[in-house]
Design a protein that fits this description.
Elements: E1 8-9, H1 12-21, E2 24-31, E3 34-41, E4 43-45, E5 55-61, E6 73-85, E7 102-113, E8 115-117, H2 120-135, H3 149-158, E9 159-174, H4 181-190, H5 195-199
Antiparallel strand pairs: 1-9, 2-3, 2-6, 4-5, 5-9, 6-7, 7-9, 8-9
């Protein structure tokens, strides 16, 4: 990914925070049939000696050939907030007109080798963690144990866990850092989704 220094985000906690806030990743593989992309919700685990940038975990249908590429290097792209930026927001617009539109966004690219996990206990624990997390804000959260045990047991045979210990993590926060403070403020005011991300320091 092309990321000029003023757009590069390298803080691990910040990169993990984007993944946690936008967990639907695009997992890109390159197999015998060429490039393929699957859209999968992930959880991000803490760094370890074996995975210094953390570990991504998810599950896919057993019918999905993705998990059979175990051992292959893969890329997972996480897309954070984004917004079109009009040149009319810039102070230079009425002065010289020398401004053009752009697009602001925050993304994380995660790289690692894919592992497939078929242990029912591992998969069940993952399902419980994912469900607990995504149901937490609901008035009456649903939990896995509310489904019939036989149904869950059959489900565990129909899916396969995937794990990606991360060898590299890249972040690009293109949020008008190359513009004057007045322009940055105008963009933040115009793009509500980006404002919180623009308010904090973005690089180390």
């Amino acid at each position: 990914m092309y990321a000029p220094a003023h757009f590069a985000e390298t803080r691990l906690a910040t990169l993990h925070a984007l993944i946690a806030a936008h967990p639907l990743g695009t997992l890109v593989t390159h197999g015998a049939a060429g490039l393929s992309a699957d859209h999968i919700p992930f959880e991000i685990g803490a760094p370890t000696a074996a995975a210094p940038f953390g570990t991504l975990r998810a599950h896919v249908a057993r019918a999905n050939p993705l998990w059979r590429q175990a051992g292959a290097d893969v890329l997972v792209v996480f897309q954070g907030p984004s917004a079109y930026v009009s040149p009319s927001l810039y102070a230079e617009k009425p002065l010289s007109g020398k401004v053009v539109p752009t697009y602001n966004y925050a993304v994380v690219h995660a790289h690692g080798a894919l592992a497939a996990i078929e242990e029912p206990a591992w998969i069940l624990a993952l399902l419980e963690r994912l469900t607990t997390r995504h149901e937490a804000a609901r008035a009456a959260p649903w939990s896995v144990d509310q489904a019939p045990p036989a149904y869950i047991a059959a489900l565990l045979q129909a899916i396969v866990g995937i794990e990606i210990p991360l060898a590299r993590l890249e972040g690009k926060w293109k949020l008008s850092q190359n513009r004057a403070p007045a322009d940055q403020a105008a963009v933040a005011a115009d793009c509500a989704a980006l404002a919180p991300w623009m308010a904090a320091p973005l690089t180390m």
